[in-house]
Amino acid sequence: MRPVEIDGFVTFTLAILLLFIGKGLTARIGWLRRYSVPEPVVGGMFCAAVVCLLYYGFDVRVDFTLEARDTLLLYFFAAIGLNSDVKMLGHGGKALVVLIVLASSFMFLQNLVGMAVAGAFGMDARAGLMVGSISLTGGVGTTMAWTPHFVEQLGIAGAGEIGLAANMIGMIAACVIGGPVAGYLMRRHRLQPSHDAGLEIGALHEDEFSKRIDYHGVLLAMLWLNLTLMLGHGVSALIASTGLNLPQFVGCLMAGIALRTMGNLFRPNGGRLWNWQSMQPGVALISDVSLGIFLTMALMGLQLWVLQPMLGFIGTAMVLQILLVIVFTVLVVFRWMGRDYEAAVVCAGFGGISLGSTATAIANMSAVTREYGNAPRAFIVVPLVCGFFIDLVNALVIGSMAG
């Protein structure tokens, strides 16, 4: 096997090129647009498929340096925080509580399915948690955090590899099913799209919106996003000191919400260094670019060949998990979230909550809203559920079921 290491700068540049490829393919292939498949997913999976072909066909292993990926995620969630007006939480308060309850309940179902499949394959049933809420709802960070306990305390060999493989499949599936599920709900229930085209996330392809971007506004956006990241690091350190193991982007999300709240409180009419109306298009621009490149890098870095040794167990478990997500989303989440357009957008993101990552959820929602119009409540509720509440509940669920 001949290893090929791609350095960080080349990886970042390649991700930009792949994002252009994804946009080009989406513009030319009708079913990609029809099912609202995110453009970064198309470019990232194209790269992952080529890398897999090189591995099996030419005995070449390509490894990308993905350091910039994590920073891009922090910028994205800093932007989400700055875009979050706490006054909107009053409008979305009930939806927030309902989605927390639904997502928490789903984690138990997810784990029961995983444990049943593990038992059917003659494995320790607790290994099924690695194809349950640990890897799917929790993601890579939660998988790596729990791996030592499963290997050293529970004696489950290969627990980390099982979890990482399940996370790979889950993230791909989450990217694929979000748009089609929302499209089905739109058609099935004849939902009226939003007439608000002024999106704050993922709306930067509209000429009228782009005209609002100016030098001063983008410079302000860069300043406050960097300040948000700095404050976010402090918030994350404070959270870690309490013993909670939460992703670093949670701190940036909370910091952004705090800074937006203080800016609105002390400078409601704007000023030289805080003018939300001026800098909001710049924040949205940086957010959209950061999300697109992050998701492209996350998918282009997938090493699909690691799935081969555990294909039977993981494949069976993941088919059932994906079907469970689709059925639960269509029959339960849509109904309890209000059976309207906002509910359909939340359903597009629920695959990201339960199978992939917060960024995947937002990418799916962005693809749908770019097609049908704004859904502001969904963009507040889903990141808060993904980024904070779910991680807390998941830790309790895993601890109670792992023993």
From TrEMBL:
Annotated membrane topology: Multi-pass membrane protein
Keyword tags: Amino-acid transport, Cell inner membrane, Cell membrane, Ion transport, Membrane, Sodium, Sodium transport, Symport, Transmembrane, Transmembrane helix, Transport
GO cellular component, one term: plasma membrane
Native source organism of the sequence: Pseudothauera rhizosphaerae
Keyword Cell membrane recorded: yes
Gene Ontology biological process: L-glutamate transmembrane transport
GO molecular function: glutamate:sodium symporter activity
UniProt subcellular location: Cell inner membrane
Function: Catalyzes the sodium-dependent transport of glutamate.
First-listed, main subcellular location of the protein, grouped into a coarse class: membrane
Family: Belongs to the glutamate:Na(+) symporter (ESS) (TC 2.A.27) family.
Superkingdom assignment: Bacteria
InterPro entries: GltS (IPR004445)
Name of the molecule in the record: Sodium/glutamate symporter
Name of the gene: gltS
Transmembrane segments: 42-60, 96-121, 128-150, 162-185, 218-240, 246-263, 283-305, 311-334, 341-366, 378-398
